Amino acid sequence: MQFGVQDAVTLLVETKLKDESGRTLWIANHAIHYSFIAPLYAREEGLCLSADPRESYSPMPSGNELMVYQAAGLIPKHLPEPRLQTSDWIFGFLLWWVFIGVTAYELIKRKIKKKFGREKSVATPAVEPVGEPKTEPQSQEAVPKDEEYDDDYDEEEE
Predict the structure, then answer these.
(1) What is the pLDDT of residues 110-154, one digit of tens each?
(2) Strand order in the sheet with 2-18
(3) Residue 94: CB partners within 8 Å, gap ≥ 6?
């Protein structure tokens, strides 16, 4: 779960500038993600300089300072356009994507149920009328014939 504000820095173009520890600085895109349980909103903050997107960043030079760096060839003359990256669109608005997905799922599920009908319910058995129980007529083969009885059997037991 995420709450609050998080910086998102995406490296774009390598420069010839170095930070105080000697690492190469990159022109990076800076975005801010606002979160409540999951990311809710992303906002573009412009370009910045960073050696590592997981660490700190510094603001992009502007005005005369930028022109001096560009004239010296330390920063490219054509700067990338600051904009939200694909990852910012996906992860910066994650809560909305989840909301849209759940809503679409529920709407499709309702439409399918409506089209194919409700699930079949188990039918209750029919109730027999009170009175004498119904008996099924037995077939003639099930009733033994008189000649098949062994009359002698009963006499021997007595």
Answers:
(1) 998 888 876 555 556 666 666 666 666 665 565 555 555 555 555
(2) 2-18, 24-50, 58-59
(3) 38, 39, 40
Residue 52, token pair as written in the block: 């590592």
What distance in Å separates the CA atoms of residue 158 and residue 155, rounded to the nearest whole number? 6
Could you list the beta-strand ranges (E) of the chain: 2-18, 24-50, 58-59
pTM confidence score: 0.55
Contact 15, 27 (CB under 8 A): yes
Neighbours of 125 (CB within 10 A): 6
The Cα–Cα gap between 29 and 57 comes to: 10
